[in-house]
User: Fold this.
Amino acid sequence: MKYISTRGQSPAQSFSEILLGGLAPDGGLYLPEIYPHFSDADLTRMRGMNYRELAFEVLSRFATDIPADDLKAIIDKTYTAEVYCNVRDGENAADITPLHTLEPNLHLLCLSNGPTIAFKDMAMQLLGNLFEYVLDKAGQGINILGATSGDTGSSAEYAMRGKHGVKVFMLSPHGKMSRFQTAQMFSLQDENIFNIAVKGVFDDCQDIVKAVSNDHAFKKANHIGAVNSINWARVAAQIVYYFKGYFAATDSNDQQVSFAVPSGNFGNVCAGHIARMMGLPIKHLVVATNENDVLDEFFRTGVYRPRGSANTYHTSSPSMDISKASNFERFVFDLVGRDAGKVRELWDAVDNGGAFDLASTPFGSAQGKPLNGQSAFAKVPEFGFQSGASSHAKRMEMIRQTWETYGVMIDTHTADGLKVALEKREDDVPMLVLETALPAKFEDSIREALGCDPVRPAGMEELEDLPQRYEVMEADVMAIKQFIVTHTA
Ligand SMILES: *Cc1c(COP(=O)(O)O)cnc(C)c1O
Assistant:
């Protein structure tokens, strides 16, 4: 399997070659040159598989340059009941992503049972083991530099802690993360993890990461890498739980299901899109946004209009507070018939602060040849996408309603997914809402909605009392580069 760029101007690469990188050299995102396909017979064979077996079945089609036995060993050590142990009472950790039924045909697919109790652990834990494997083989090291306001940074640190060949330098805005998230990250005592609390806001942290990444000489000399949401292996790892959820909610391949996905950077739902392209019987992929509704606007109108920071809101589902959806380009590449010239044209506008409108763009029109006069946007239903947006008031209402009706406590992101799922659900089509974090991660909002504190998973009760290890630094690119240089191997 080779990977091509959505912008069509980079050479095709193997899975291992793109594993440690980010964007393709031409600025595009990598996708498989063709999607592997699972037949009805394949699905029947896979139906009884456990999570590890399914993960191997799916990922071996993508990571074709890793010997099968090695890939199997990496998967087997990643997806264990010990790592994904933070399950609800009554759920079985061995399921890795248990299905929790709220009522007939309405389920939560629980993806947040890993060490940082958010769904990013599903892919990041695999990435940690994959990184260690390829770096060991190549006799190399990597220094991961990132900026976080919460979930991504902690998930990356818990995935990379103690891995040989890997160091993590994670910038976060000093004093601006929740006490729980701060404690989760800063209590790590591993020598390869460096928490840098920057005197500034999240955008300052992100600007520093960008400045370092744009210094190509420094980046090369110091083996700087990233683990951002466009990483292909993260998307690939997320495909697996769509299969797991489908099999858990159905008993025959004749049945279809729909998934509702709390979305920010479009990484999670992009994995669902690919699962569907691979032959999984998915009826609808329901994209749920918060007040930052750039994706909902696209699926309603065909206009993709990224926002500036002044129009990006801080909400009570903060991990979905995005101004642009970094993985969205992958879907648009498929939507316009994999016409890389068209994608370049569209992102020319986006990368210059503009927008595009696919409702008035004829399909496959890079050379100006409309297909049946149809617009690219008119093709969206063929891909099963639907969307909706939520708000703070709706979020609170959903958390209350779910608690009162089912006795189940959900977090604010999952609440956005459930809100839109209820609007879009159809009779006789199971709706699976992806649970992207546990409520313990967002205590303040739970207290506001329910007037009580969420229960913390075992072992996290005293998190804020643990000793913390971090450096406070000015928002100064030079100083942070110097810090990295002195702490790399
Ligand atoms: C990252 C995150 C999301 C958004 O996922 P995307 O892949 O960026 O769309 C939703 N909920 C939670 C809790 C997250 O951490």
About this structure: DSSP finds 18 helices and 15 strands in the chain. The pocket of pyridoxal-5'-phosphate is lined by residues 118, 120, 151, 229, 262-268, 319-320, 413, 436-437 (CB under 6 Å). The CA atoms of residues 169 and 484 lie 7 Å apart. The first helix runs from residue 15 to 19.
